[in-house]
Design goal:
Distance between the termini: 43 Å
Radius of gyration: 16 Å
Number of strands: 0
Shape: globular
CATH superfamily of one domain: Hypothetical protein af1432
Helix content: 55-70%
Structural class: mainly alpha
Length: 189
């Protein structure tokens, strides 16, 4: 069984300084959110640490991994460009570190969320968005809301993300829309 220090060293080998520091920041933010929402702190920290472990793969490495693991070629489509690394990382953490299914799902969908997310997935989604190294319009509002109402915070983040992507004429993955719709329908105003 791997411990967190061993996983840190393992993750470090594949990431540049910026991405590794981001991963450490996400781990720390996930820890704070897990404590705040009475969730499993160790799972949150491990997911935060490993969520971007495949982010620096080249397109060829992504394609090779997808072929080797017999994954859907749809992951290589432009609309999946920003989420493919989560899918790959979710396989590695399951096979290599023996992460539980809830951890695997949290990592797999950390960029878009998914309908009916559990608390761990919500924590990892938000921690990735609001970690202390990030700075973009409305992030302070996201950070405050994250500790008041996690569902409303995710709705706020998704709306900001969708607006930002539309302004840049970037493709928006449908899972983000599905997550937003689900949360809007199931969250009390």
């Amino acid at each position: 069984m791997w411990n967190i220090e061993e996983i840190k060293k393992d993750v470090r080998k594949n990431l540049k300084d910026y991405r590794y520091n981001h991963s450490i920041n996400v781990m720390e933010e996930a820890k704070k959110l897990a404590i705040h929402y009475n969730a499993n702190v160790e799972k949150a920290m491990l997911c935060g640490l490993t969520h971007d472990m495949c982010k620096e793969y080249t397109p060829l490495e992504n394609e090779d991994f997808i072929n080797k693991h017999n994954l859907s070629k749809e992951l290589l489509l432009p609309e999946n460009k920003n989420m493919v690394h989560g899918f790959l990382a979710s396989i590695i953490v399951k096979e290599k570190y023996n992460f539980t299914n809830d951890m695997v799902l949290a990592i797999k969908y950390h960029t878009t969320g998914y309908p009916n997310m559990d608390m761990l997935a919500k924590i990892i989604y938000l921690a990735d968005k609001i970690e202390k190294g990030k700075d973009y319009p409305l992030i302070e509002e996201e950070r405050i809301l994250a500790y008041k109402d996690i569902d409303k915070a995710i709705i706020f983040c998704l709306n900001n993300q969708i607006k930002h992507l539309k302004e840049k004429n970037k493709v928006i993955n449908k899972m983000g829309y599905e997550t937003l719709k689900f949360l809007e329908e199931h969250t009390m105003n």
